[in-house]
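Incident log entry.

Two folding requests arrived from the same account within the same minute. Monitoring flagged them as a possible duplicate submission, but the sequences differ. Recording both here for audit purposes.

Request one:
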Amino acid sequence: MSKNLVGRRGVLAGTGIAAAAGVLAMAPGANATVTTAKGSAPKNMPLAFNADGKFKIVQFNDTQDGRLTDRRTIELMEKVLDTEKPGFALINGDVINGSPRTAKEVKEAYNNVVMPMESRGIKWAVTFGNHDEDSLSNQTGMREEEIVAFLQQYKHNLNPSPVKGVYGHCNAQLLIRSASKNTAAFGIWLLDSNRYAPDTLGGQNFDGLMGYDWIRPNQIQWYTEASEATERKFGKKIQSLMFFHIPTFEHHHMWFGQQFSSDEAGVAAAKVKHSIEGEKHEEVYTGAFNSGIYAAAQERGDVRGMYCGHDHINTYKGDYFGIELGYGPGTGYGTYGLGGVENHRLRGARVFELDESVATVYAGTRTVFAKDLGVDTTNGDQRLTTPVAFPSYVK
């Protein structure tokens, strides 16, 4: 594990085991829609705009807990869902932490935080973060492949099955059907930003770099080819939002208004230039290498926003040369926050509004916080005494 991943974030659990190769689905779950091969467009649309031409997406992040999740994490998720009534909800990485000691405990940890969506009949998916395989160090045997197979038992899950050919385990393209005709009106891209950088590469270690992995070139190739195929299928570029766990280098550059500096002197001008809103309380913990996903999306011109998690106490977003870059707030109460009496102040979620009457369909985004929904934000833990019950159809 990289020595760079300490400080406010704490000592990370796990051993930095490299993620196994895997990919996008040729055999999706029952509800999923994904590209079936490189260069082909999705076969169907699992999501649809409401009759009024509107649709909401909710992004949760870093629920990051074990089998006895802090009950306020679940309460927060439930209140957001009941208030916003989204058509789709996402937990954008680090769904659990490394504390489970058996495969069953891994499943219990996931079940605790997916049941708010599942029990309400809201379609949902997860992306993977750097912590979701950390329990492997406890010999749980729950790699991301096994986790996906488990999640696909849920009736409302849209995660595809990983197959060989594209790096990662949660890459997917989900299309949202228009309210008025049988065509795609908007899209959702999910990408696996993977886990930790390897110990060495080319005979060199990663000292001095961020110790996280990055979105790999064949994932970007897959996105580009699938985007082009979708354009051919529908006769236009389908505007979309893209979600992955670990932020891009551009998330950093946007905040500081500079590429190679973290000088706060540039922040005020950057906030004006990029219409930045929200807070930043920790470093932008990127992958070790710049993956190039921002440049690829900029060239394709079909991504309206790229949203991440990972840095729990950063909530900002802005317009970076035509693509929104931003964070969803950290949702989970069981992991680090601001510290002190304000530790849980930024627990929350991000809401995205879609409207077919808007030229780009994307109508904007906003954050919602636990404190605004009446969820307790006092410091300390409030653990479940027993895990949430599994649905009868999930083993």
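Request two (distinct sequence, not a duplicate):
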Amino acid sequence: MDAIDSQATQSTRAAHAGSESIAASLAETFGQDVGPVRIVGSDPLTPSVHRLGDASAAAIAAFGQQIAALAGKAPVTVHADAAIDQLRASFLTTINGQAAHRLADDPASLANNDFYATRDGRWIFLITTYPHQRDAVCRVLNCPPSAQRIAEAAAHWDAFALEDAVCAAGGVAAVVRSADEWRSLPAGRHSAAHPVVRIDRIGEAEPRSLPRGRQWPPLHGLRVVDLTHVIAGPVAAKLLAAFGADVLHVSRPDLPDPVAMIALTGGGKRNAYCDARDPGQAARLREVAAEADVFVNAYRGMAARGFAAHDLAAANPGIVTLEYHCWGADGPWAARGGFDQLACSATGFALEEAVEGRPSLPPTYLLNDYLAAYLGAAGTVAALRRRAVEGGSWRVRVDLARVCTWVQDLGSFTPEQVRSLPRPGAASIAEHTVRGPLGTLVEPVIPISFTGLPTPTPGAPALLGTSELQW
């Protein structure tokens, strides 16, 4: 970066709120006092116009502060370069020496996830990760599941018509919009009306203290149901498990995540099967939820089966629910599914990351999945702390699209200021090794230091369905 660019970057950085200030703002949203935090380093760290390192470091620090508050508010330290690495943890993890992200059940399904040009001069991101999503795209486009044939077929469609058709067919897709286009949509306005983490008291209950007081790790005795898949929800629950919680991950036997995903997100959890479409299995899940402290959910259909936050609170006063959605559980796009890449596409984030006129994902590839994980875990611990003092049942909500716009709202750099920076390469984050049923897993550590206290490491992941649906 030349001297002029360096001066411009310093000027832009000076106008931005520091990452420690961002963490302080999150603490205000959570409504609980926290101890001190130190964030080492700042953006720009990658060739991204967005503040990836600052946002990630602040979210990680916010979780660390909530955890530390349970054990005397030990000072917390986070390094921004390690926070960048956390965003790409799935690419830094190996299983028996093999890169985890290469161990897909169907490599083509992931490879076909991409931006496709449409005949009206726009772009759309299509997702084919799971079989039903692949089938929806291929039915609409009347083509086989190959990137070339999808591209050829998409070129005959207008972008918004294709988006509607894929979503109507049970798939997921998002047109690449500008930030202004997104924020002018009803879905965008609904999203912008809420903080990046929503914490609401939804019922009355007596205060329920956390089980182990100021012992470390501080979440021992806490029971967590993890009804999520892919990254954001599972990583949030994995963080709770790493700090001592008993986490029971629940999945439908005919809709499993790939083995690599279980390795990436399953550390320290038990895994049980449950098909909530079966009344008997749903009843058993309700019994488990009635004895839980936290219920994490990322499935849109569960409310219709009696597992909405208010239903859970009625059956178990004092429960904390953590919900993940892409577009919002009750907004205009509530019926649409979505993933990290789609949130980036719809909100203008991908357009702002464009390279030579083509929309692009950030240099870390993933963005709001890992950010959402730390934000949701922080909000959950904050709600548990509030429950211990105020009582009540609590609902915590994190939407991926809102995470994107939260990062956008932190300020940005110009392309000229960041274009000469190297893309993320060798990791600066430390690793830990754990051995279990899947073999030897080497993955990034939790990038938080607690003064005077050790940072725990997640346990080994378990295979799906190897535990009973019970505590």
